[in-house]
Design goal:
By secondary structure, the chain is mainly alpha-helical. Helix content is 70%, strand content 2%.
């Protein structure tokens, strides 16, 4: 055992990068298995309508061309901004990836997960960035927390459109937030002073602010509060102010997009956002999100109750303050979704990440202080349970994604055969009926097959056939 401990300490940095490489390879394989689904089909074509009204979940007209260049993306995003929504940064990226081919997304997306793991690790140390990872187990724990507690992992981290909107955009927000965290909580900054850095922070802030409606507003509140405190203390740097202004400008461009009002009008006309039933459904979704986050809240609360025993050593003050602020940010990001026309589980991605950051801060505090907040036997039991969960759920997810890829390949073969036979209709099996509930549970809710509808006029069926090049064939799912 002593030899293993010495080996672990001597090769901790190398082990960290080996673990990260293993995570990358695993996620690369999952991404390659996950098919093009739902909104991916829509964003493969030029969005919007030249007539001023457009609905993303309406069938695409057969004469709408596919994205085939930067001019198509520019036209598509111009229309999208005025007719559907303001997430230009995310949807420009999505259309570029769909234009180039999903292989590019498959390669890049696991890198964003690795970068997210590193960001959480650095934020847990108060924004101190270093490539000398001396605690490989912490990186494993962060990946475990992301894997286990994200409420809708497949849509946030595997589905192309959802991943760019949440994993990629959330990571950009955390990267932007890093220097602010270090300056506010640690009182130091690794950013050089000068106009160039201030200009860079302005641009970075503009991009980070132009991402997600339910998250950026709370980062702005955090920046505003601590910016005012620093200003009163005479310690507000120019880069802090410029970065904050950039994020505010990006958020205004996001929120004030004319497409948001157009989409809201469509939702009102269809009855999607009216009545007590909708509010009740969103409240139930909020409770479900809190259920996924429950163990994180429990650990944070347990450590917080013992905060008086940490004293003022080992940076206890700023660590506790950062953990508290992350919890408040997470809570706000969850609750504000009650005011949204819809509350999909995937929208809780960054709120869960903020809780993981808070827990990481407290784990760091517990480790450097040497105080145990958990019995050794309990710790070993939870470690064994967590390890078993990871092994079983990761293997089940691989099997489930392989099964889904086989089903999609079989569906495509039926479509090609129908086209060869000159058929005008093709019926595919109901794969959801064959998807075992045990696999869904064993995978940790990660294996979900996004099946087609029974009606050939359903927008997903129609758009998928248009994407495949067979708009004249009606696709429907067997009952």
């Amino acid at each position: 055992m002593s030899y293993l401990c010495r080996f672990y300490k001597q090769h901790a940095v190398a082990l960290s990068f080996i673990l990260v490489a293993a995570i990358y390879i695993y996620l690369l394989y999952l991404n390659q298995l996950f098919p093009i689904i739902l909104d991916d089909c829509v964003y493969s074509f030029i969005c919007g309508s030249p007539y001023g009204s457009w609905n993303l979940i309406s069938p695409i007209a057969p004469d709408i061309p596919r994205i085939d260049g930067w001019s198509d993306i520019a036209l598509s995003q111009f229309r999208h901004y005025f007719q559907w929504g303001g997430r230009i940064v995310a949807h420009t990226t999505i259309q570029f990836l769909l234009w180039q081919g999903k292989w590019l997304f498959d390669i890049i997306s696991p890198l964003f997960m690795v970068l997210l793991i590193w960001c959480i690790y650095w934020l847990g140390r108060g924004g101190e960035c270093s490539w000398h990872f001396r605690e490989p187990y912490r990186l494993v724990w962060i990946f475990f927390a992301i894997w286990a507690f994200i409420p809708d992992y497949s849509r946030d981290c595997l589905w192309l459109t959802g991943t760019v909107n949440y994993l990629w955009q959330g990571t950009l927000q955390l990267l932007f937030w890093l220097p602010f965290v270090r300056y506010v909580y640690r009182g130091s900054s690794s950013l050089p002073a000068g106009r160039l850095m201030s200009g860079n922070m302005l641009i970075f802030g503009l991009i980070a602010g132009w991402t997600n409606e339910n998250t950026v507003c709370f980062f702005l509140l955090w920046l505003g509060y601590y910016g005012w405190c620093l200003y009163r203390a005479g310690r507000l740097p120019v880069w802090y102010a410029m970065g904050s202004l950039g994020m505010l400008a990006g958020y205004m461009l996001l929120i004030l997009a004319p497409g948001n009002r157009a989409r809201h009008a469509i939702a009102l006309a269809s009855g999607e956002i009216s009545g007590w039933m909708m509010l009740r459904a969103e409240f139930y979704m909020l409770l479900l999100v809190f259920l996924f986050q429950l163990l994180l809240w429990h650990y944070i609360w347990r450590v917080w109750l013992e905060k008086q025993y940490f004293g003022v050593l080992h940076g206890a003050g700023w660590r506790l303050r950062e953990a508290r602020d992350c919890c408040l940010l997470s809570l706000g990001m969850n609750i504000i979704m009650l005011a949204s026309p819809e509350y999909p589980r995937r929208a809780a991605f960054l709120s869960t990440i903020m809780l993981i950051v808070a827990a990481s801060c407290l784990i760091e505090l517990v480790n450097v202080s040497g105080r145990n907040v958990m019995e050794q036997a309990t710790h070993r039991f939870l470690l064994a349970v967590g390890a078993c969960y990871m092994v079983v759920s990761m293997l089940a997810t691989v099997y489930g994604c392989e099964l889904g890829a086989e089903w999609r390949a079989y569906d495509d073969s039926l479509i090609q055969q129908a086209a060869a036979d000159g058929a005008t209709d093709v019926v595919i099996p109901n794969h959801n009926a064959a998807n075992p509930m045990a696999l869904f549970l064993l995978s940790g809710f990660h294996v979900v097959y996004y099946d087609f509808d029974e009606s050939p006029s359903f927008w997903y069926n129609h758009d998928y056939m248009l994407l495949r090049g067979y708009p004249e064939i009606g696709l429907r799912r067997d009952k």
